[in-house]
Specification:
The chain is 27% helix and 43% strand. By secondary structure, the chain is α+β, with helices and mostly antiparallel strands. Strands 3-2-1-5-6-4 form a six-stranded mixed sheet. The longest helix has 17 residues, at 2-18. The relative contact order is 0.16.
Length: 126
């Protein structure tokens, strides 16, 4: 009885999966592009965030960005603790304009800053 039930489930799953239409690469790319939202960055700053242990001792520090951006409804938002993570979901990139991009498809946030903006806010590493 148990083997029969498993066999029926395997057959039903196979039939369901075979009946699905596959998306073309172009359709996938169009869907991906529809999940990307861009916002204008109004101001940006860089600061050092200190990491501490449970006793308050300093165990490290991170370079972070804070920025304000305006959404599509004209509402101004402030974003803090934005880090440039090489293998994470937050990236700072050099761009032609200052903008915040949310890629909902890949779950990655991008902060695009011009070279002029980056050079004006850079914290000197000492």
């Amino acid at each position: 009885m148990k083997k029969t039930l498993i066999l029926i489930l395997v057959i039903l799953t196979s039939l369901i999966l075979c009946g699905c239409d596959m998306l073309t690469e172009e359709e996938v790319e169009n869907y991906h592009q529809s999940k990307i939202t861009e916002y204008e960055v109004l101001s940006v700053g860089e600061y050092i965030k200190v990491r501490t242990n449970s006793f308050g001792g300093v165990v490290g520090h991170d370079s972070c960005y804070t920025f304000t951006y305006v959404d599509n409804n004209g509402v101004v938002h402030t974003r803090d603790n934005f880090e440039n993570l090489e293998y994470g979901n937050q990236k700072v990139k050099v761009g032609n304009e200052n903008k915040y991009v949310w890629d909902e498809y890949e779950q990655i946030e991008y902060l695009y800053l011009t070279k002029d903006t980056l050079s004006s806010i850079m914290i000197e590493n000492k």
